[in-house]
Amino acid sequence: MNDPLTPLLPTSADGDRPWLIWYAPEERIELTGRVLAMWSSKTAAFLDAEAGPAPLVHCALEPHWRTVTWWLGTWQAGGGVLDAGADETSTAVAPAVSVAFSPDRLHQDADVQALVARASLALRWPGALPPLVSDGVADLMAHPDSFPALPAAPGAPALIEATGAPGGPGSGRSLDRGALVDSLPPATGPAGATPGTPGAVLIRHETMPAAMRAILAAWRDGRAAVLLAPGADDALATAAARQEGAA
After folding, report:
1. Span 104-135, pLDDT tens digits
2. Is residue 162 a part of any domain in this protein?
3. Is 191 exposed, middle or buried (0-12, 13-18, 19+ CB in 10 A)?
4. What is the per-residue pLDDT across 52-66, written as a single tens digit (0 to 9) for each?
5. In terms of residue numbers, what domain contains 38?
6. Where is this region: Disordered (predicted)?
7. What is the side-by-side strand order in the sheet with 27-32?
8. For the chain, N or C: smaller number of CB within 10 Å?
9. Domain count within the chain
10. 57 assigned to some structural domain
C-alpha cells in the first residue's frame, strides 16, 4: 500500500544533522533524525505491547519535543492520534491509549494511560503515579531502539483533530494519512536544503495539530524544524531564528 506519510518521517539512517530543535525559556534541545527515530521506535513498541497494533491514541500533550515523538510513535505503530480537543463523539470507540502531561487531562475510558514528564531532560515522572498509569518516559526505555513500522489500514485515521475554538472542545475532523499529507502547508523559502543547514523553519503554534503540520512540511522540504514552546515571547522567537538561521 502506498503510504504518503512514512517517507516524510526520520529514520535511524538520519544520523548527523538536526531535524528538530526545541526552544523554551533557558532551554535548547537538538534532536537528529536518528534520535527522533529511536524515541519513535520506543514509543511504537510500548504502544504495540500495551495496546496492540494500530491503536487510537488520545494525545493531551501541547507542542513539545516529547509530543512530537509520541505522534511519530503512534504513526509508526500503525495508529492514529486523537487530538485532545476533539469531541469524544468524533470516534465510535474510546481511544485505546491516553497520554498527557497532567493526570487531569487523561482520557478516563482509555485502557492504557501514560503520564509524560514535561521537563526535557527528565528520566521519569516526578513523584508518585496514579494507580495503573504508566510512566510515559521511563517505561519507554525498556523497549528497543528499533521497531519495524506497522502498516495503517486503508482509510484509517492518522489524525482526528478538533474543529472548535483552540483550547476548547469541538467536533472532530478525521484525516487518513493521504489527507493529512495533503493538508500540509505549501513549500516556502529555499526547497531542497538538507536538515541542519540554513533555511530551517521557525514553528510557533499553540496547538499540536498546527505545529505538527508545520514540522512535517519542513521535513518534506528537507529543512530542520525549530519548535518554540507555547507562549514563547518575541525575544525568544527572535533569538531562536537568529541562532538557527530560521525563517
Report:
1. 999 999 999 999 999 999 999 999 999 999 99
2. yes
3. exposed
4. 999 999 999 999 999
5. 6-244
6. 158-200
7. 27-32, 18-24, 225-228, 201-203
8. N
9. 1
10. yes
